[in-house]
Amino acid sequence: MKTLDVMPAESSANLISSIINLICPQCGGRMSEYQCEGRCRRNWFMEWEWTNLSTRSSRLSRRS
Question: Please, what is the angle between helix 8-20 and helix 45-63, to 10°?
Fold first, then answer.
């Protein structure tokens, strides 16, 4: 997997944006239902769930 030098929140935002736009965050290929149809063929469902959970948790802790 490609490693990026970014802040965790920025990485999460990029991941969410890529998946919403149906672009694989790893290889840039086309995606369908969290599954890359490009070079890497990676399924991004678990990363999507983790990112959404951590983003929600972060928002809730800031409200407290």
Answer: 130
2 secondary structure, DSSP code = -
Asked if the model's pLDDT at residue 10 lies above 80, the reply is: no
Distance CA 47, CA 58 (A): 16
Alpha helices in 1-64 (DSSP H): 8-20, 45-63
Contact 22, 35 (CB under 8 A): no
Residue range 15-58, pLDDT digits in tens: 999 999 999 999 999 999 999 999 999 999 999 999 888 877 66
Handedness of CA 51, 23, 42, 35 (dihedral sign): positive
With H, G, I as helix, E, B as strand and everything else as coil, classify residue 27.
Answer: coil
